[in-house]
Design goal:
It contains 15 helices and 15 strands. The protein is α/β, with parallel strands linked by helices.
Length: about 475
């Protein structure tokens, strides 16, 4: 109908599901064009596992999508470098706690680097002790905290009327039931801001004697130190909603006297194995460095993003194998499109175009953005990209399809801006890809030696297996998978 060939529309508004209120809301940062994001980082007492990787890759992709949409994103992700678990591990090994911290923060940074996760600032708790003390003093002055006889300081949850709103877990009846846990705390849900020193533990001097910070206070202090008293996104795994984030929110809104402290609370679902949360305490972890070695960082990253960040993602070898072949297919299609763009003649634009194909590619482009704008749904976004791969593969785009190729190239580039999985290494990452590359190389050599019979046989045998070889002028051969899904 009509003569609209293609229609270039605006991109959809970004909507996010806010854990606070469990509502989908339009995304509007406090300051136009700028997004301030804080993600709770690791406690560095052991190797990173792929559950950690899931959460950090998810927020990296969220950040990348916001950047793609023109926001300047400032991303802070802390390192908890003093904690019961670190002290316990140091005691078990008979080493200084700082050694433990050094060893495992190295492991964490290696994981970030190989998974292509970028963070702007990694603040550490022990570099912020004086600010933490100041914050706690402020809470005491404002009547939100009290010093217990031991020298520990607790937040008084009864002074903050919004306690429990984020997690929805805390009801007054529950408070009464748990009264037997009261010891030096006045209320069962009161939590430690400062922990009094016990022999054998590291300590810092404070107005309440020797001690160290409680866990929750660090994130309130370090987020405001780098992002201000209010900011846009606060993220972490769903296990942090209660008590960690509930407590962070209580102390921050009490201290700054401003609401909301955080505009959007985003939480990742668990990475599970046989349906159980992957965690050190259950002993079912797959270390991130092992997984990276086995499948390669890009395949791992693609798999981690193959589910929406809020849903559960269950590990299986098959799922990773599937991700490997998905990646190879996207890569081959993206390469084919790049080549076409390089060789097509722009002046032919739209003339010999297969309009149906061009429109399907544009639909895929919008479907990608619709999915990403809908609470960063990477699962649906990936499906849109695979649809474009199918269009590209169904029938090689004719060289006249300059516009179609341009749209496809743009989709693959924007996809990669967010997913960050395409690259030269990906095609040669796994044994399968390496084997195909090897056969391609052998065949090129045979052709160079004019042994065309054998070269053609390899080509046709590979073709039967669903691996298509494409020879380009200049002697370069590109391969791709032609099998339907
Ligand atoms: P931790 O070192 O346990 O404090 O965890 C650091 C971050 O990784 C937190 O945001 C956790 O919620 C997240 N995390 C830990 N285990 C998993 C898992 N199995 N799935 C998803 N996120 C996780
Ligand atoms: Zn935190």
């Amino acid at each position: 109908m009509g003569f609209t060939v293609i229609e270039w529309r605006g991109l959809p508004k970004i909507r996010v599901r806010n854990t606070l209120g469990n509502r989908v809301e339009e995304f509007h940062p406090l300051e136009p064009g700028i997004v301030r994001m804080y993600v709770c980082g690791p406690t560095v007492y052991d190797h990173m596992h792929i559950g950690h990787a899931r959460t950090y890759v998810a927020f990296d992709a969220i950040k990348r999508y916001l950047q793609l949409r023109g926001y300047s994103v400032f991303h802070v992700q802390n390192i908890t470098d003093i904690d019961d678990k670190i002290i316990r591990k140091a005691n078990e090994e008979g080493r200084d706690w700082r050694e433990i911290v050094d060893r495992y923060s190295k492991d964490y940074f290696e994981m970030l680097r190989s998974l292509g996760i970028t963070v702007d600032i990694h603040p550490r708790v022990t570099d912020h002790i004086s600010e933490i003390i100041e914050f706690i003093e402020g809470l005491i002055e404002k009547g939100h905290a009290y010093v217990a006889p031991s020298g520990s300081v607790y937040f008084d949850v009864t002074t903050y009327p919004h306690y429990g709103e984020l997690s929805g877990r805390v009801h007054p009846e529950q408070w009464r039931q748990e009264e037997d846990v009261l010891r030096e705390k006045r209320h069962p849900f009161d939590f430690a801001l400062w922990k009094a020193w016990k022999p054998g533990e590291p300590y810092w001097e404070s107005p309440w004697g020797r001690g160290r910070p409680g866990w929750h206070i660090e994130c309130s202090v370090m987020s405001s130190r780098y992002l201000g008293e209010q900011f846009d996104i606060h993220g972490g795994g769903q296990d942090l909603v209660f008590p960690h984030h509930e407590n962070e929110r209580a102390q921050s809104e009490s201290y700054f006297g401003k609401r909301p402290w955080v505009r959007y609370w985003l939480h990742t679902g668990y990475l599970t194995i046989s349906g159980e949360k992957m965690s050190k305490s259950l002993g079912n972890i797959i270390p991130a460095n092992e997984a990276i070695r086995k499948w390669g960082p890009r395949v791992l990253r693609l798999w981690l993003l193959s589910a929406h960040y809020r849903t559960q993602l269950d590990f299986s070898e098959e799922a990773l194998e599937q991700a490997r072949s998905t990646l190879a297919r996207i890569e081959a299609a993206a390469e084919a499109v790049e080549r076409l763009l390089a060789e097509a003649e722009p002046e032919a634009s739209l003339r010999g175009e297969r309009l149906e194909q061009t429109r399907s590619l544009l639909d895929a482009y919008y479907a990608f953005h619709e999915a990403m704008s809908s609470d960063f749904n990477t699962a649906r976004a990936l499906a849109a990209v695979m649809e474009a791969v199918r269009v590209v593969n169904r029938q090689t785009l004719p060289s006249e399809s300059y516009t179609g190729a341009a749209i496809a190239a743009r989709l693959f580039a924007e996809f990669n801006h967010v997913f960050n999985v395409l690259g030269k290494r990906a095609a040669t990452e796994g044994p399968f890809e390496q084997l195909v590359e090897l056969l391609v190389k052998v065949r090129s050599e045979l052709r160079r030696r004019k042994m065309f019979d054998l070269a053609d046989e390899i080509r046709s045998e590979l073709g039967q297996l669903g691996i298509q070889l494409m020879d380009y002028p200049g002697g370069k051969t590109v391969w791709r998978l032609t099998k339907k899904d």
